[in-house]
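Input chain follows. Return structure tokens only.
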Amino acid sequence: MRAKFPIDLQEELLGKTHWGEREFEALCLGVPPRKYCDCDEIAPQAEREAARREITLAIRCGRIFAKETGEGNSLYGGQWNLDPVSAVRWAMCSGMFPKFPNWLKAGKLEEIYRRQDAERLRAGRYTLLQAADEIANHTGEQQSAILDILKNAVTRGALAVHLPGSKAPYQSDTVREFYEEAYWDDLNKCLEEFLPRHAWRLPDPQHQNDCANPGEIAEPGGDKTQVAVSGIGRKEILSVDWPLINAFGEDSLGRALSDVPNWLKPARTAKGAPGRGSALWNPAILAICLLEKGYARETALTNLMRRSFPECLDQWNQSLSEKQ
């Protein structure tokens, strides 16, 4: 029987920017952290020790992003601040914790998908659907026609695809446009074969990563945890439900991201260019721009940063402090 988590505790855990390792250990065992202690009444010793061992290994191997606190100890915890998104993703993928709360998985799923998309694009990998969208946007061809070309290329063995996180080619009779991924350079070979009259090509991710932002880039929980992101694309920005007010709605934001007004330019970390990808945006600075124009309220934007862009929360808070 699963333990009950009060609504206020659920909201507290979902809103935190980091968890302690014992807090996460309790969640892996399906126990509310407020009630968790290292005793058999809470969970059998073998389960506690196995969970602790696996969590520690995941932290040290980098599968869970975490930062050392310089305090605590191995028995009572307090040595690490864990990034919740990577922690939940690891717990889900490991398959070792059947009591892990379903509400917590659901609450972090959007952020997990967002981070996976960002990681995939930084590596120059696209699902077939993402590649078709990008190619269609830059060539003017029909997205459905491009998708058919790519799927046929996979079926004929002319385009290599890979399972998420794997570098080994993957072969299957079923071509899933939303799941398997192809590298940018392999996709460009398809463009050269099937769309030779179009000069546009998918950009080299190394070039994009180098020029996206002169600032630091790091995963949450690394040596430099909460740093400004290098920027995300227009599509990712608009996939979020921004708390806009005063007749400035999603359509207005979409137009502003395409035809950039001066007040929004500070949020742009990289300009788009033909053949080199679309413009990139810093969500924290974008939120500041919206706040200054009176298009959103501070409290609503803070909640949005916590929910959808936790990697930008420190920069958002710092920018607010500088404004005061």
